Amino acid sequence: QVQLVESGGGLVQAGGSLRLSCAASGSWFSINRMGWYRQAPGKQRDLVAVVTSGGSANYADSVKGRFTISRDNAKNVSLQMNSLKPEDTAVYYCNAGGNSISRRSLEVWGQGTLVTVSS
Questions:
Q1: What is the pLDDT of residues 52-78, one digit of tens each?
Q2: What pLDDT score was predicted for residue 4?
Q3: I need a labelling partner for 16 at 20 to 30 A (CA). Which of 1, 8, 76, 98 fits?
Q4: Which is nearest to 60 in space by CA: 71, 47, 69, 51?
Q5: Residues with Cβ < 8 Å from 33, sequence gap 6 or more?
């Protein structure tokens, strides 16, 4: 069984910073990409940032220059969020894609962590 566990959400004032972390565990053979998505109330889940095993990162236009994703090691990813805005308020989900030790293709989601930015 594989899983992702997120931490680091919370309440912050506009202009502040938060750091989210995600740790993968279980029978992963390889994790090709790890990323963060977010879902605000009444809206769809959207990509925030993703990083490949080779270190290539992509960001949503709305967070470019403010958020930084980093692959801490093969099974951990972080999202440093600076200059937070009220519109960044959402549940943030960690996502990982790769293969199990039996070479089965996997896509796994974390349980989500709430980020609230007050104005």
A1: 999 999 999 999 999 999 998 899 999
A2: 96
A3: 76
A4: 47
A5: 50, 51, 52, 53, 96, 97, 98
Q: Which amino acid is at 25?
A: S
Closest CA relative to residue 23, chosen from 46, 5, 8, 1: 5
Give the residue-averaged pLDDT of 91-107: 95
User: Taking the CB of residue 48, how many other CB atoms lie within 10 A of it?
Assistant: 24
Q: Which amino acid is at 65?
A: G
Give the whole-angstrom CA distance, residue 18 versus residue 42. Answer: 23
Closest CA to 115 of 45, 23, 12, 42: 12
Q: What span, in angstroms and rounded, lies between the C-alpha atoms of 118 and 15? A: 9
Which one, of 116, 118, 119, lies nearest residue 8 by Cα? Answer: 116
